[in-house]
Write a structure and sequence with these properties.
Blueprint lengths: L15 H10 L4 E8 L13 E5 L7 H13 L5 E4 L9 H4 L6 E9 L7 E2 L1 H15 L15
Parallel strand pairs: 1-4, 2-3
Antiparallel strand pairs: 2-4, 4-5
Length: 152
């Protein structure tokens, strides 16, 4: 796996930085890292692991990719929460909008008080997030997660 880490700008006002990254790199797969909201209605809680966004204003993860991702986590005893929103989004939107046929995952850290001076995350979630990223990027480990294209 050829890994490129990009830190982008302007996510809150259209994802322009991620669009530049998408055009320049043209990745085969994308993991967008960001934060999300603790959400009682969706059972997204601090201390219960990272969150895979299934659908929001930026990304849709279909049933096949969702099932593969969840099976990947279960096989490694890695915690994973999921969420669905009809608003908001992440820089993940830039990649399919550039016409790239890459699977795009928004893998988020649950937090409380987003966009405030007291934004809070649980340290166990951060460790689980990093463990999941390490597992995803291990040689040969992501097979089945990276070979399903996105059809815009």
């Amino acid at each position: 796996i050829n890994v490129v880490l990009g830190a982008t700008s302007c996510e809150e006002i259209g994802g322009f930085g991620a669009a530049v990254l998408a055009r320049a790199v043209q990745p085969d797969a994308v993991i967008c890292l960001d934060a999300t909201y603790e959400d009682e209605l969706q059972n997204v809680r601090l201390g219960h692991g990272p969150v895979l966004t299934l659908s929001d204003a930026s990304v849709i993860v279909g049933p096949a990719l969702r099932d593969r991702f969840q099976a990947f986590c279960r096989a490694r005893s890695l915690p994973l929460q999921t969420e669905v929103y009809n608003y908001s989004g992440t820089d993940a939107r830039a990649f399919p909008h550039q016409g790239l046929p890459a699977p795009v995952y928004a893998l988020l850290l649950p937090t409380r008080g987003n966009h405030t001076p007291t934004e809070t995350a649980h340290v166990a979630d951060l460790h689980a997030w990093l463990d999941l990223l390490h597992a995803l990027l291990a040689p040969g480990a992501g097979h089945g997660l990276w070979d399903v294209g996105f059809a815009p």
